[in-house]
Amino acid sequence: MTLRAIPAAAVLALFSMANAAADPANEISQRLGAGEIVLVDAGSDLSGGSARVQALVRASAESVWEVVTSCEQSMIFVDGLKQCRVIQDESNRALVHQVVKKGWLSPKQDFIFESLREPYSSIQFRLVEGTLKDMEGQWLFSETPEGLLIDYSIRIRPGLPVPAFVVSWVMRRGMPDLIACIRGLAGGSGSPDRQNEDLERCRGEEKAAK
User: Is the overall model pTM greater than 0.85, yes or no?
Assistant: First the structure.
C-alpha cells in the first residue's frame, strides 16, 4: 500500500504518533509511568555539577514530605551522611547541619543549609555556611492522575578542588538511587517487588526496613 492510499485520518494519526515519539517530554512521561526514576538533566562546569531527577510516587505528598524532611530518614537515603541535626525548625523554614563523607578518596563535607518550605508543594534550599563553596536546589511535589510527581534539582560547588566531571558523574550515579530510596521509604513504589528494588538502592549509613 502506498502512502496515497492511506486515508487522511490515518496519515494524521501516523504523524501524531511520530511526533509523540520524538517529543522528549512524552518520552519522559512514558518512562515515569513505567516506574523509572528519570535523570532529566545533568551537567558540569568549571566550578561544580548539577542534576535534575523526576519520579512518580504512589503515595501522598505528606508521606514523601515526612521522609524528605527527616534527619533520621536522611541517614538512610543520603549516601555517606555521617551526621544530621536540625538546628532550627519553624513552620516554613529550617536550618540543618549535615556532615557527609562518602569514602577515603572523597573529602568530608561539613555544612549548614537553609530550607524554605511550602507544605506540601515545594522546598527551596541553599547553603548557609560550611566546606562547600555553594549548594542550592529545590523539591517540587505535584499531584497528577498517575500519582505524585517528584521533581528534584540540585547544584553543588565543592569546597576543595575536584574535577567537575567527577562531581557530575557522582550526581548522575547517585541522584536516581536517592529518589528511589525515598519512594520506597514513603511506601510509594506501587508494588511489593518495586518496593524491595527501591529500598535496595538506599545508600545511607542506616539500612531501610523491608
Answer: no
